Amino acid sequence: MEEMELEILRKATEMFNRYGLRPVTMDDIAREMSISKKTLYKYFSNKEDLVRKAVMAMFEEIRGNMDQLLEHSGNAIDMLFAMDNVVCTTIERHDPSMQFQLDRYYPEVSAMLESLKKEQVFKMMYNNIKKGKAEGLYRPELDAEVVTFLYYSRAQLMMEEDMGPFKDRPIDEVMREILIYHVRGVASPKGIEYLEQKLKTPNT
User: Fold this and answer.
1) CATH code of 54's domain
2) Which residues neighbour 21 within 8 Å (Cβ) at sequence distance 6 or greater?
3) Per-residue pLDDT tens for 172-190?
4) Could you give the CA distance from residue 47 to residue 104 in angstroms, rounded to a whole number?
């Protein structure tokens, strides 16, 4: 990707986050960057193309952060905590109004993003369960598909605008309690013992 294309994506993302997807036009972006529309259309065929690539850039950043963390996360339970840190940060940055605009005005882009997120989470969780079983930290009879679906559904629920009784509580506290609940549900006696030791460690 050329430097100018990256600069346009960065500026467009900044403007989308500040003003919303709908109000920002290609003219606005070109004017803000002091470039011609001809330059803008050299890299992006239309606004939907720009929105799609901006969304993909954000997704790739999150996926890169996740992959980097998981490379140095230790065993399967450590990996779950590392994954949850990224998920928690993503949820904290999540803007429901932006998601609404994406769903309403760019449904194909929204569907593409949802598919990518689901694929990524399912892949990571399936590998995590396989690793946990091999390490003896998870129960051997676990159904990987069911557990993965429950984990993904939990992450989706936490991104809802109305969090009910939890909407005024810090998201990291709620996420941590749910994560501990999840680990206790999948862990073997060896895994439970490791979890208890981990929870006693400061800054876990």
Assistant:
1) 1.10.357.10
2) 51, 98, 101, 102, 105, 106
3) 888 889 899 999 999 999 9
4) 15
